[in-house]
């Protein structure tokens, strides 16, 4: 393996036996041997990839495609049936947080135990102890047994240990929702700092926004093989487009079975939900199952005037009118702001902001008011999305709106953007 390569995966295969009905006692196994029928499921089928030192790679794909299995093979929690995996450097994994914790030991004692699992000596742990405790924000509870900790405190301590190992390679599996909102932001910033210091990162996440912000490359795993890899923004778009098509195919099959006696009505509904024709520019910018559709987007200033050009520091409001074709339970609205180079400058949604759960049953509007944006002078494109709570796109509209920021004299920028949401007649302030 080249010196500049941190991870090399070559022709790796992994399968599991799934027993349909297996006796738990020796007597049952002897008398009912037919109950031991099983089927072999191939989870990974000859995947190969390399990760360079200091590179951050995101693994994406549907549930059951083999992402987490790949990560567990990299950590050597399990081993491949065929192929080779070579890791160059100390490995730290954020997969099963707190797997080595003992409930009757104090937080301090568990730090020593867990850090030792990652390969640190006592001297190394002593030098990092105060940093670990400070990052976890558990100074007042560190000498209490961890069985007295809440689940959030438990995860915070485990996360703090894992990221202070000073590993060469960091493996992460869907753990960026640790603790409260402030601690989540702290964890996210810490990961950016770790990456900037040259640590190699492999992350599994269904949050494509996180992948785009942290990773240099995305690898899309589909049914045990690598379907595509490249720039996160490009691969994420291909993946979402694929998922959207699958959802639409399932919806069409359900409609055909369910409403055979209402042929004309079904055709009209499918017409309403159909995405733009594949040969139009708009088709490449929108996808979703069509249960709700964004109809109109208005950008206006704090005084209510409709405009697209603003001075840096000015408040910006986006009003989005939408139509509902079919009830959307547990709805989520979101936006993302990108510069002309495709770099995400800001993004949020109603789930991140912890707004009360709601559903869409009729046409309406939602408005997001952005205050003290801190955006520098330049041109920005805005993505607007309606999704379900489990991440299924209802109407994702890429580059739905454009704004231009002009420099204001004396403007120094604000580090933290403020905003609020208006859903119908309800206003939710988010700071």
Q: What does the model show?
A:
The protein has 431 residues and is of the alpha+beta class. It has 2 domains: 5-233, 3-Layer(aba) Sandwich (Rossmann fold); 244-430, abc- transporter (atp binding component) like domain (Coagulation Factor XIII, Chain A, domain 1). It is built from 9 helices and 20 strands. The strands form 4 sheets. The chain has a 6-stranded mixed β-sheet, sandwiched between helices. Strands 10, 12, 14, 15, 17 and 18 form a 6-stranded mixed β-sheet that branches. Helix 3 (107-117) packs across helix 5. It is globular, with a radius of gyration of 25 Å. The model is unreliable at 274-283 and 411-415 (pLDDT under 50).
């Amino acid at each position: 393996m080249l010196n500049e390569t941190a991870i090399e995966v070559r022709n790796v295969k992994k399968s599991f036996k799934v027993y349909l009905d297996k006796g738990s006692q020796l007597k049952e196994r002897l008398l009912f041997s037919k109950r031991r029928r099983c089927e072999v499921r191939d989870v990974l089928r000859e995947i190969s990839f390399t990760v360079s030192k200091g590179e951050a790679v995101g693994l994406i794909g549907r549930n059951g495609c083999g992402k987490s299995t790949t990560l567990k093979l990299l950590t050597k929690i399990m081993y491949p049936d065929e192929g080779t995996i070579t890791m160059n450097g100390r490995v730290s994994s954020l997969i099963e947080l707190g797997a080595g914790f003992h409930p009757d030991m104090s937080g301090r004692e568990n730090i020593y135990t867990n850090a030792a699992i990652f390969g640190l000596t006592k001297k190394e742990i002593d030098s990092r102890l105060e940093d670990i405790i400070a990052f976890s924000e558990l100074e007042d509870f560190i000498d209490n047994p961890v069985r007295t900790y809440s689940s959030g405190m438990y995860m915070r301590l485990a996360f703090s240990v894992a990221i202070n190992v000073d590993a060469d390679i960091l493996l992460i599996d869907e753990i960026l929702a640790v603790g409260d909102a402030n601690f989540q932001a702290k964890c996210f910033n810490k990961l950016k700092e770790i990456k900037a210091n040259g640590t190699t990162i492999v992350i599994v996440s269904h949050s494509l926004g996180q992948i785009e912000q942290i990773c240099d490359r995305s690898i899309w795993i589909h049914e045990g093989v690598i379907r595509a890899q490249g720039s996160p923004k490009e691969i994420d778009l291909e993946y979402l487009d694929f998922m959207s098509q699958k959802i639409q195919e399932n919806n069409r099959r359900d409609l055909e079975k369910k409403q055979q006696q209402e042929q004309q009505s079904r055709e009209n509904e499918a017409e309403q939900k159909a995405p733009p024709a594949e040969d139009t520019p708009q088709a490449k910018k929108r996808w979703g199952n069509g249960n709700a559709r964004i109809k109109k987007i208005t950008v206006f200033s704090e005084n209510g005037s409709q405009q697209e050009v603003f001075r840096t520091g000015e408040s910006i409001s986006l009003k989005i009118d939408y139509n509902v074709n079919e009830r959307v339970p547990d709805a989520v609205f979101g936006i993302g702001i990108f510069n002309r180079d495709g770099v995400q400058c800001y993004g949020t949604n109603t789930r991140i902001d912890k707004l009360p759960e709601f559903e869409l049953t009729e046409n309406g509007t939602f408005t997001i008011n952005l205050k003290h944006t801190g955006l520098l002078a330049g041109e920005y494109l805005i993505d607007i999305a309606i999704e379900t709570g489990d991440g299924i796109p209802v109407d994702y509209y890429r580059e739905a709106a454009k704004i231009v920021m002009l420099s204001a004299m004396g403007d120094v920028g604000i580090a933290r953007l403020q905003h609020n949401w208006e859903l119908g007649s309800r206003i939710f302030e988010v700071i």
